Amino acid sequence: MTGSGKTTFIANATGRTDLKIGHNLTSCTQEIQIIETVLDGRTVRFVDTPGFSDTYLSDTEVLEMIADYLSAGYSKEMRLSGIIYLHPISDNRVTHHATKNLDMFRKLTGEKNLKNVILATSMWDKVTPEEGLNRELELKNKFWSIFIAFGAQYCRQNTSAKSAKQIASMLMDNEPFYLELQEEMGKDNKALKDTAAGREIMSQLSLLKEQQQRELTEMKEMLLRTAAEENKAALAALEEHYKKMMYGMEKTISDERRMNEEAARSSDEKIKELTERIHKLEKKGSCVVM
């Protein structure tokens, strides 16, 4: 998730001091970055992605960005050696966003690839040992139990370069693999919305749209009551909040449209490929029955 310390981890592992690291409540990484270094005499490339529940990007935009990168990697037969999922132990509770993102992460990765995942807790310097231990046990026994059952490893990550390099080294001898999302889009030629991760996003968008519609209806009723009471200050505040809610609804509809348009483009490309194949067969004098 945003704010879990992904870029800080990579800066520690690579020794890079020029990476933009966030130090406030807003997210910092707005695009995928590839940072290369040498560990134990081997070239290692870290892929730094924006997190889900980003400050500026919707989950749809983040997934599209990651999917584009993974699809390009699949076309060039570039596999991953592992994934590091960071969770700040300083969070005093696992939010709805966190559980939602875990579901998204599992579907994007695929159960068969969870053995190549390291679940790492960060920001141990911000909690007492007792607080950290209690949260760690809850994460492992409740929220991460499925991941660990499928072979994911767990470790703590402190702020040192040594810790980051040790965690990265744990993945370097893995057999390279494709994520489930890569195989769905590359091998099976699915549109993003039809992949497991895409279906999760579409389901979330549908639920979010229903919730926003209910809230907008309630807000309209409140605006009418406030207007009748002639409370200008309250009315102005409510109107401003209503505008923000409308923007949120428009963004949700836009994200839904983006996913559907992406699927339509994929269909058009398939039709184009099939048409070209038919033309080639016709030139060779073959007969195609459809």
UniProtKB/TrEMBL annotation:
Keywords attached to this entry = Chloroplast, Coiled coil, Hydrolase, Magnesium, Membrane, Metal-binding, Plastid, Plastid outer membrane, Protein transport, Transmembrane, Transmembrane helix, Transport
- Domain G: where? 2-75
What name does UniProt use for this protein? G domain-containing protein
Gene Ontology biological process terms from the UniProt entry: protein transport
Q: How does it sit in the membrane?
A: Single-pass membrane protein
Location(s), subcellular: Membrane; Plastid, Chloroplast outer membrane
Q: Which GO terms describe its molecular function?
A: GTP binding; hydrolase activity; metal ion binding
Q: Which residues form a coiled coil?
A: 202-229
GO terms under cellular component: membrane
The organism named in the record is: Trichoderma harzianum CBS 226.95
Q: Which cofactor does it need?
A: Mg(2+)
This protein's record includes keyword Glycoprotein? no
